[in-house]
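Reopening this ticket.

The earlier resolution said the output was attached, but the attachment link was broken on my side. Pasting everything inline this time so it's all in one place.
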Amino acid sequence: MSRALLVFGMLCLTPSTGANQESDRFMQLALDCVHREYPNKISHVLNEDADSAVPRILHPVFYGCFDWHSSVHGHWLLLRLLRLSPESALAEASRAALHTSFTARGVEQEVLYLRGDKTFERPYGTAWLLQLTAELREWDDADAKRWLAVLAPLEQAAVDQYLSWLPKLAYPIRLGTHNQTAFAFALVLDWARTAGHRELEEMLQAKIRTFHLDDRACPLSYEPSGEDFLSPCLMEADLMRRVMAREAFSRWLGDFLPGIPTDGSADWLSPGIVLDPTDGKLVHLDGVNLSRAWNLRAIAENLPESDQRRQSLLAAADAHGEAGLSSVSSEHYEGSHWLASFATYLTSRRWSLPPVR
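Inline output:
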């Protein structure tokens, strides 16, 4: 059995020793960066000299991990694994780091920033923020309740960003990087269902169906582009299975990705190759392997059990999962500041519905 097959089910409420070691490794990567301010790539509009400031002043909660969105999902990683592995040797350090980050004063500044720039981290970073608060909403833990209360104004600012933006968005964004709408919509839709926010859920479902219900023959053979960390085709299919019944999704998928084999093979979709892991753009392809792995598995698990495409989807998921997980290390900060979040999203099955409880 491949390492990827073992890892897919390894993180649960009673993890094995091997799973503990892997989750601790991911937690340590997040702990190493959530309060590391430099190097830092800020996305900041200057209107005058007085607008210049260092990252920890601009973003007192999410200033680490090189950029705002990576800091957000680094904090999500700590929450996710702390929730699933409460006896971890790094649990105390993770709680302390989260206590340090989640302060009312810091959140107040983050809210001012987000409300002052309606395009800031839209859609990727704010989608991860809602994933973070969805995790808190699902966790019956005293600290989690306290952190959720502190983050509530920022959560509301992110929700308001989507409620304002979605009615004006005329077309989907089909990139393989941060601006892609399919992945962001998936995270936000999961949050809306967790939070019981019917207005946002209904708005998203309508937009998703308008954008994608008639899509046909997605050019999967054109992927990946040289800096992708998300698959435009597979992420769209992963999104659509969230809004369609199983049989309807199966029919839609046949038109959307007609080339999925039925022989159980894995080589119909090759993992991305990274030739320079010190290049922050090229290392994105390690992420595309991880995200493809959860896309492929999610697609397969939402097809009827008799569907002959399932085994090829699962085989390709295992190949991509193994390639992606082998790349998660502390050796180069270009990947270490974010890849563990994608690995955790994959291995802890956070992509699945209903959410793990």
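Reporter confirms the inline version is readable. Residues 1-8, 10-14 have pLDDT under 50 and may be disordered. The chain has 16 helices and no strands.
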